[in-house]
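Go through the following before class.
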Amino acid sequence: MSPVEHLDVLIVGAGISGIGAGRYLRTELPGRSFAILEARAASGGTWDLFRYPGIRSDSDLHTFGYEFKPWRDQESIASADRILAYLRETATENGLDAHIRYHHKVVAAAWSSAEARWSVEVERGDTGERTRLTAAWLFCAGGYYRYDEGFTPRFEGRDRFAGRIVHPQQWPEDLDCAGKRVLVIGSGATAVTLVPALARTAAHVTMLQRTPSYVMPVAKRDPVANLLRRWLGEERGYRATRRKNIAQQRAVWRFCQRFPKAARRLIRWVNTKQLPAGYPVDEHFNPPYGPWDQRLCAVPDGDLFKAIRRGDASVVTDRIATFTERGVLLASGAELAADVIVTATGLNVQALAGLALTVDGTPVRLPETVAYKGMMLSGVPNFAFAIGYTNSSWTLKIGLLCEHFCRLLAHMDATGTTVCRPEVGDPDMPTRPFLDFAAGYVQRVVDQLPRQGDRMPWLTSMDYHSDVKLLRNGRVDDPALRFSLAAAEVPA
């Protein structure tokens, strides 16, 4: 029987977070052995999975990109193919290709305090074979939603519709919407991306929404960024642009939080300027919640508004009573005819890539854990995860988390310890959901996620500057961490 392979760090997921984690390990701790396990057949995560028309970033790539690798494209709001090329180039440049193992789905992981290691069960997607390996640390970089299926609510009469129904997460390669009437159900980032992309060739595209979202035009090209790059060069220009955009994102979010009424009026004014004269802005672009209570939708160069002005696209705000043979019947009594219906109705959140964790034989129940610094779980040793910002570019936090993770491992090397376990000192500390966000995809599963506390280090920060102090400049030997040796290593 062949021996079980042992690694210092096992990274789950070869998307933007997993590639980032691998790079930081290679750079900061070059002596560590590690592997990146990817359940799918390709790297890139979201940017390889989604194939729907128009798929692109809704954050600028100077902050969505890695701090260590400049974004060199003229357009800062980029299409998926360019983001994917950037990620794969990063992996190759940093020698990560040989560390990525495809068709490797991590099913379960069991921690042994006696051995101070995780025993990890892996399913080979290409063969169905199950194997096992061990690791001193487990780093979950799989994001927070399910890759195998998106969310679609139950629609009455769905089977009656004579046309085609698709979800953006499973976009068929053979679907051609040219010359067809397309109905896109939804009002989030995916819907506002799809509508103008489909409107280029479709007979007409209708965006049917139950509740409006905040939508703002953003420039595809950042002229200041391109000017700074010419003046300062690639590296310094990228750093300067990154600082500018971080400050800009923070200012917008704080303004919306502190002055929601003024922010609402400003967004409405911008929308009015973008839409045809007399357009019912308050009916279709005036959400009942405050700005940034949910993620604000960005549309590059105002493409959604341009499609509406041309008459290629329209917005309907109503509820679906039932699907019909021809389309959907609305609660108002109106019927929307369609040849293709796209259910851009959101994601299914899945914590920790669906991993089943146990610690010394006891299952880890996520709602009973509290997140430490937004990257570890109380009572779970040698385990870290990567969740980015909901109110800013995802990767800003990922970079800080990876830096802190490497510093933590270096500290353990220096102190000769092998186990690190976060422990809540105050059992009466109030807690609230880990993702304190009003979006429907979060609220549907909020009771299945970890919790966060009301104070540091148990408070999950969504502010980059606070996290720079905590994760980049703060100490790693926090009183809330219990460092020790494996039980087998403790002298009698």
Notes: The mean pLDDT is 92.
